[in-house]
Amino acid sequence: xxxxxxxxxxxxxxxxxxxxxxxxxxxxxxxxxxxxxxxxxxxxxxxxxxxxxxxxxxxxxxxxxxxxxxxxxxxxxxxxxxxxxxxxxxxxxxxxxxxxxxxxxxxxxxxxxxxxxxxxxxxxxxxxxxxxxxxxxxxxxxxxxxxxxxxxxxxxxxxxxxxxxxxxxxxxxxxxxxxxxxxxxxxxxxxxxxxxxxxxxxxxxxxxxxxxxxxxxxxxxxxxxxxxxxxxxxxxxxxxxxxxxxxxxxxxxxxxxxxxxxxxxxxxxxxxxxxxxxxxxxxxxxxxxxxxxxxxxxxxxxxxxxxxxxxxxxxxxxxxxxxxxxxxxxxxxxxxxxxxxxxxxxxxxxxxxxxxxxxxxxxxxxxxxxxxxxxxxxxxxxxxxxxxxxxxxxxxxxxxxxxxxxxxxxxxxxxxxxxxxxxxxxxxxxxxxxxxxxxxxxxxxxxxxxxxxxxxxxxxxxxxxxxxxxxxxxxxxxxxxxxxxxxxxxxxxxxxxxxxxxxxxxxxxxxxxxxxxxxxxxxxxxxxxxxxxxxxxxxxxxxxxxxxxxxxxxxxxxxxxxxxxxxxxxxxxxxxxxxxxxxx
Length: 584
Fold this sequence. Notes:
Number of helices: 27
Strand order of the largest sheet: 2-3-4-1-5
CATH topology of the largest domain: Rossmann fold
Radius of gyration: 36 Å
Oligomer: single chain
Number of domains: 4
Distance between the termini: 103 Å
Largest sheet: 5 strands, parallel
CATH superfamily of the largest domain: P-loop containing nucleotide triphosphate hydrolases
């Protein structure tokens, strides 16, 4: 006899042998015992969840010689012939290859004839959603009022494609994806039957790859058994299924905890080089961090783990992350996964997600970043100031300009348009640390970085330019407020742009956006507050000695300050390329 695949040999032959689908089994069995079966059923659900197998078992139970019964005996001639597919009164019809109205009319003509030897004539129509509109119309009247001896069982993976008039004439049963534990238990029975030793973790890997389908799981198990030798091992299951070892995920999570971005990206590069799909990687990472959450929550949830085994090192790893951090990781990966489905650059999206995850603070752990002492002093001073003001108010004192802790300065206010507020405080911090070297490095990488973006994204930077940069961030001035707001609020775009600049410069810059009119006001205020004009004059007079610290460098400010009225007029007349300024 020729070899048969596992999913054919080990197809369930009774309700008792079925995995999962308890709600379907119980309803059908109760109807069989009470003799309250109807004329039309609709079985819908994902592939490999037991729709056709359930239809055959139900057909056997209806026609079993020991009926009424909730289980077919599988011993009488009727049950045996239905199992073998040779019974004339149980007709399997594949709508995918017989979708025309002529085939349905053939069924309609024959359905009125009485069964040859069974109690009911059962029609199992698989992939019924493939029928044409005219075929559905031809079936409609017969499905509504069939002969008393006829039972129709319609099976489909896409019930939304069926006309509402068909669905309303059937009892509908929705089959669910099988749990990993159900699939693992079924595979254990198969391996015990063929007497092949196995590692349980290997079965979990196969169940994870099957995505809730028993047929997919048994087909994959068949491949792994053929590949394996005397024992089914985890290594063989990983190799055949294309899945990833939990140790690789452990290394990746440890690198994220230590914020070792280079190691994270190198691990990702290795996995991509081995042919792993970035979209599948993101799904597996979500499952891995979900398992860490379960380990962190309770030790009684080991049966729910899908990728991780409850070993001590994974338990310790789960404790090194706060719950909020793990939730943040899952949230970032979920959003990235949605974006990846509509892009051909899935690797870039996954790299960006891992960089975001590396920057998530792991609050509540020993590796949490320490607060800046200078920032703590400022907060303490502000708290003290607020306390003094409260005391003055309680004592009935009015707050006059003399009572305020700082002198009020007449300064222009930045106008806020379109609801976007530029991060003024953060930009001023960048200006204080700005250097000519940093802005030149950003400008040199600016155009190559824009060329790597999509055209719709790079168009937003068409009227923008970097104007100041420190070692960790730089400021972009936008001519149009709407472009500034669109870029600033698109976190995925700024993260991708930062990653591209990182590849060009070696620095991971934070991007700060500001409209041109707001930048003009903020720049003037900053120059006045920090006395840049006087510092420049003093440095020029002293020839800028080496011991004199360098003043903050603002690109377009320095250019504006260096303009002499005579030089400016000459440039207007002859052009900048023909004017050269020589200091005597």
